[in-house]
Design a protein that fits this description.
about 160 residues; 6-stranded mixed β-sheet; 3 helices; 9 strands; about 25% strand; globular
Length: about 160
């Protein structure tokens, strides 16, 4: 059955700078993600993959085919950040870190069951919406594209990675 939802037509983008590769597929659905990876990977590999659909509805075939070193979940306290999406990212071959914009606060079947999430150092916001200060996760790429760092606006912690 063809997916005719708004999300199946989500616009994504692929950014490159030298050896550095970043991919954001917006809210692209699992079936559309799957088509990008099967029967062959149409996108190659990436350094940073912003996990689609706020970390819910993630196609492991695409995520694993991309082999990102870093995954970023752009979830909110009550939207996205489901356990299944996090687990797909965390179990991706050669993944080094999974960063999150928000600690997921919902523990329910829609979000994939019990909360599973990144460490506090890799999570920008830990509180609910009313108390949230809106911290960021930021990536900065070296001018030659050979390395990049990802940092947490709340803690100031950062990690540096070599581009593939």
């Amino acid at each position: 059955m063809e997916d005719t939802s708004e999300n199946s037509r989500s616009v994504g983008y692929f950014l490159s700078l030298g050896a550095f590769q970043f991919l954001n597929l917006g809210d692209l659905t699992v079936s559309a993600q799957h088509r990008l990876a099967c029967p062959e990977n149409l996108l190659g590999d990436v350094d940073i993959f912003q996990i689609p659909h706020h970390g819910n509805g993630v196609a492991p075939q695409l995520t694993w085919a991309l082999e990102p070193r870093v995954a970023i979940l752009s979830n909110g306290p009550h939207k996205g950040g489901g356990a299944k999406g996090y687990q797909v990212a965390a179990q991706t071959p050669n993944i080094q870190d999974v960063w999150q914009l928000q600690r997921p606060l919902d523990v329910n079947p829609i979000n994939g069951g019990p909360a599973v999430y990144s460490s506090d150092a890799l999570t920008a916001n830990l509180t609910d919406t009313d108390d949230c200060e809106g911290h960021w996760v930021k990536a900065v790429v070296a001018a030659d594209g050979r390395s990049y760092s990802v940092s947490n606006g709340r803690t100031g912690s950062a990690r540096t990675y070599a581009s593939k």
